[in-house]
Automatic annotation (TrEMBL):
Residues 1-20 form the signal peptide. The keyword Flavoprotein does not apply. Keywords: Signal. GO terms for biological process: electron transport chain. GO terms for molecular function: electron transfer activity; heme binding; iron ion binding. InterPro entries: Cyt_c/b562 (IPR010980). It comes from the Bacteria. This is Cytochrome c class II. SUPFAM superfamilies: Cytochromes.
């Protein structure tokens, strides 16, 4: 029992310490907006996963269609109005990069040759760079 309590205390201290060292900008959202926002982030991750799987199957145009319908600008639910301007701009960059990827997939022939793969992977890299930059800058309280 003593070991369990000690382990729980140590984990709590580590968690608090990790949070104290987190220098990202904390965004405080009302609970209902936070839930919608996190659901939207999960939707984006699922769509990105679908894009990657479709590309792996050689279905680059279908991957572009998913990016266009699930990740590009115009799919927001109005959550941006609760975010700081810097966050909104990073979000728009993400949505624009997804739209750019969708447009470039129309130019790639299937089956993809080396040049097509380079374009497609480069387009996905532009999307994930936006994800990484935002997650490195912000966190939700």
């Amino acid at each position: 029992m003593r070991k369990t309590v000690l382990a729980a205390v140590m984990l709590s201290v580590l968690a608090v310490s990790a949070r104290a060292d987190d220098n990202r900008i904390a965004i405080d959202l009302p609970p209902d907006i936070k839930a919608r926002f996190l659901e939207q982030m999960r939707t984006h991750m699922n769509a990105l996963n679908d894009v990657i799987h479709l590309m792996a199957a050689g279905k680059v145009r279908e991957a572009g269609s998913v990016a266009s319908s699930e990740m590009a600008t115009g799919k927001g639910k109005g959550i941006g109005r609760f975010m700081p301007p810097e966050f909104r701009e990073m979000g728009f960059d993400y949505h624009r990069s997804a739209g750019d990827f969708a447009r470039l997939t129309a130019e790639i022939s299937e089956p993809m040759d080396a040049a097509g793969w380079e374009k497609a992977v480069g387009g996905v890299a532009q999307i994930t760079a936006r994800c990484s930059a935002c997650h490195a800058t912000f966190r939700v309280k």
